[in-house]
Structures are given as C-alpha cells and as structure tokens.
Amino acid sequence: MNFCSQCGEKVRFAVPQGDDRPRHLCDACGTVHYQNPRIVAGTLPVSGSKVLLCRRAIAPRKGYWTLPAGYMENAETTQQAAARETLEEACAEVSLANLYTLIDLPHINQVYMIFRAELLGDFGAGAESEEVALFEEHEIPWEALAFPTIEQTLRHFYQDRPSGHFPLHTGTVTPEDRERYFGSA
Ligand SMILES: [Zn+2]
Asked: I want to staple 37 with a disulfide (CB 3.0 to 4.6 A). Which of 1, 25, 78, 109 is the partner?
C-alpha cells in the first residue's frame, strides 16, 4: 500500500503507538490500515463413493487438481461462500454437511474452511476450471494436487471414511509443506 484509501495521501509503514506490529499509517487523516487473514471457503463434494475434484484453469497451480474453494466475499456466510465457489468452479449444487477441515496458513495470511458436501446433480467445468471429474480413492491424483490444504483434507477423509465418522480436523500448513508444492523460490 502506497496511498491512503481514505484521503489519498502517502502512507508510511510503522508500528503505531500502543501497537506491537507495523501497519500502514496515514499521517494526514490518522487512519491505521489494518490487514488481516483472508478466509478461503470450499467443499469436499461426495457422490456415492466418489469425490469431485477440479483441474485449475488459472494461476497459481494451473493444471493441478483442487477441491472447489475460493475467497469468501463480504456479506456472505462461510457456508454460502463454500456453496457459491462450488457452483462457480464445478457448476455443481451441493447439500452442505459439517465443517470438516479448518487449516491455518499463517505464512500467507489465509485460513481454509472446507465443508463436507453431497453432490446433488450434474456438474461441469466453471470458468476457473479446465476439467471437473469424480474420483474413486485409488484414482486420486496425489502427485498432481494443487495445494497442501487439499491433500490434508483428502487424507483425513479417507482415514475417517471406514468409520463413517467425520469430525472437524484442524491443522496448519507450514512453509515447508508449501515448498513441496511451490518450490523454494
Ligand atoms: Zn489518509
């Protein structure tokens, strides 16, 4: 951030009085521009024994497989965000079940919230997907998944499925986890 979104003057990056970390500060109008983590909401859509995955048509990780998920918008609930992203990326209507994985990514200021969901009907590739398909467990492209959050969610799912019990799992993606997907640059 270079300029204040309130008044248009230049901002500086410094620790405000009484605070403990640097923020973008506007000396002209006194605004402190706080930046906070973003929520990525999505679903794990299931149809019978199969799981729906989307092959990404956009960067980052174009061509790799993901669960439908994306940034939450203002004025919607996390469930609405998860269902909307599933409709946009997989053209799929779903019935949401419980929140299944809650994964912190503190090094990139994101929180993933993935809900279990039942696929209700047809699906297809949305604008951000090259391809959308259903996978049996042995067909999951583990080496071609887009993000560590997706791998963690799928691994929990296949560990839980024999018991039929799907409790909430919390986790963290470390920089090392991310490096395996994105390289170290
Ligand atoms: Zn200002």
From this structure: 109
Residue 30 CA, ligand 1 centroid: distance in Å: 6
Does residue 60 have a cis bond before it (omega within 30 degrees)?
Answer: yes
Question: So what's the pLDDT on residue 183?
Answer: 83
Q: What is the mean pLDDT of residues 44-53?
A: 98
- Quickly count: other Cβ atoms within 10 Å of residue 96's Cβ: 17
What is the CA(1)–ligand 1 centre distance, in A?
Answer: 12
Measuring CA to CA, how many Å separate 167 from each of 50, 69, 107?
19, 20, 26
Distance between Cα 36 and ligand 1 center (Å): 19
CA distances from 123 to 61, 141, 168, 176 (A): 22, 19, 26, 34
Q: How far is the CA of 20 from the centre of ligand 1 (A)?
A: 21
Give the integer Cα–Cα distance in Å for 165 and 185.
Answer: 40
For ligand 1, the distance from its centroid to the CA atom of residue 109, given in whole angstroms, is 24
Residue 85 has pLDDT above 60, yes or no: yes
The pLDDT of residue 182: 87
